[in-house]
Here is the input.
Amino acid sequence: MKLILLEKAEEESKDDFETIAAPEIERRYYELAITYDFYYHTPRFWLSGYTEDNLPLSEAEMFEDIVDEYSKKTVTYETHPHLGIKQLSIHPCKHADVMKHLLDVALENGSKIEVHHALFVFLKFISSVVPTMEYDFTVDIELGA
Here is the structure.
């Protein structure tokens, strides 16, 4: 994938731009797993990252895709309880509070969230922790402003 950057030429008018080819950007892919955390009674999100060549990403490489505010606090590197391999885990301790807040905001803005949309609301929350990921939301959910 090529990214084209636009840079304003110094001596040209406001409408004239010079295009500069940026270096190719290597995509990263993630496998996502969701387990249920019985202690917090909420979903728990697990991530395993891979390069374009399907090679596993290191812990440091995966943390590059996490918002610094959450890195090694809300998002930790732990052993998956069923797979026995180390993965990034988004800790569930605040999930219920955040989900309740998102649902309250939706209600305040006149949206009604159906029970079967709960997973989509959860994924919208997770997208704030891992903003570099592209999510395929097959359902459009309005949470409001």
Remarks:
- The mean pLDDT is 76.
- The first strand starts at residue 4 and ends at 8.
- The CA atoms of residues 26 and 52 lie 7 Å apart.
- The chain is about 20% helix and 25% strand.
